[in-house]
Amino acid sequence: MAVYRGMLPAKRIFLTAADAEVDVSSFQRSGRFGTGFPSGFTLIELLAVITLVGVLSAMALGMGRHAVIFSQTARAKAELAAIAAALESYKQQFGDYPRTDRPDELLQALVGKRGPTGSTVSGRLLLELAHFQTADAADPLVSTSAELVDPWKQTYAYAYRSDAGWTNPDYVLFSSGPDGNAAALLAGGTVDETAPANADNIYADR
C-alpha cells in the first residue's frame, strides 16, 4: 500500500449525473434564489420602467426649458423697463421722444448722439450699456449701426411718430418674445393685440 507523508491517503471521488443534479423547482416557483434577491424582471415590468424613465426625462426637460424661458422673459422685462426710463429722461432733456422706428437710431438717441428729429446732438448717456447686449457686440459709442437686442438676439421694437399718419400719443416699445415674430403696427401707431404673431410679445409694464 502506498504511504503519503504528511497527508491522509487520497480517495478517488466519483459523481454520477444524478448526484450533480440541482433541484431548482422551488426557486422557479418562488422566483427567488437562496440569496434573497429577485431573479429578474418580466418583459412587461421592463417596458413599464422604460416608459416611466422616458416620461420623467421629458418632464425634466420641459421644466428646464420653461425655467430658461421664464428667466429670459424676466430679463427682457427688466431691460425694457430700463429703456422706458431712459426714454423719459430723454424727453425731459430734449422735450420729446426719438421720432423713429429704427432700432439703431433709438440707441444713438439714448447714448446722447441723436436728437428727437434726427439732428446730431451732444447729450447725456442714458443707458448703462454694460447691462445690455447689442447685435454683433457692436459698441454704440463707436458704431452708429449698433442695435439693442433682447435675450433671444432679436432687436427691441420701438416706434414713435415714424410717419405722417401717427396718431398714438405715446411710443411703442416691446420685445417680440421667444418666437421672434411680431405683426406690423396698426394705422396710427398702435399694437394689434389680437394678432397671433403678437401673442408672446413682452412689454415693460405687463
Structure write-up:
The structure is a single chain. The protein is mostly helical. About 35% of the residues lie in helices and about 5% in strands. It has four helices and four strands. The chain has helices spanning about 15-20, 25-30, 45-95, 105-110, and strands at about 135, 150, 155-160, 170-175. A two-stranded antiparallel sheet has the order 1-2. A two-stranded antiparallel ribbon has the order 3-4. The longest helix has about 50 residues, at about 45-95. It starts with 16 loop residues before the first helix and ends in a 32-residue tail after the last strand. The model is unreliable at about 1-25 and about 25-35 (pLDDT under 50).
Notable characteristics:
single chain, 206 residues, mainly alpha, two-stranded antiparallel sheet, 4 helices, elongated
